[in-house]
Sequence to fold (121 residues):
Amino acid sequence: MTFTKLVLSVFYTNLSDGLKLFVDCLQFSIEHKDLNTSQPYCVLKKDGISVMLFQDDQLAKEHNPELRLVTNNIEEVYETIASSHPHLLHPNLNKVTVRPWGAKEFAIADRQLGIRFQEWE
Fold:
């Protein structure tokens, strides 16, 4: 059995919240959008990563995922996010910190999703 890609699905009460996080803050591009349906959604991509954002009030209330993005330059990622979207920095991990398991990490969160950024030494 072989897998070639993992595509995340994230559910928002308001799709614009997800677009602010992924497009405005993390600089993903919108590859496809279907906003005029009963369940609006967008397909976003960046650096080989795909994310599907859905607007679905019920599922948004049931799912509060956390994901991890691994990078080779966590300081650059941190500086970009801290200077452009400091309000998204998670209060429990708002600076690059070496964790007991050896990874450097920091985290952000919006109303629906938590994202940890990691760099392994």
About this structure: The domain at 64-121 is CATH 3.30.720.110 (Signal recognition particle alu RNA binding heterodimer, srp9/1). The beta strands are 7-12, 29-34, 41-46, 49-55, 66-70, 97-98, 103-109, 114-120. The mean pLDDT is 92.
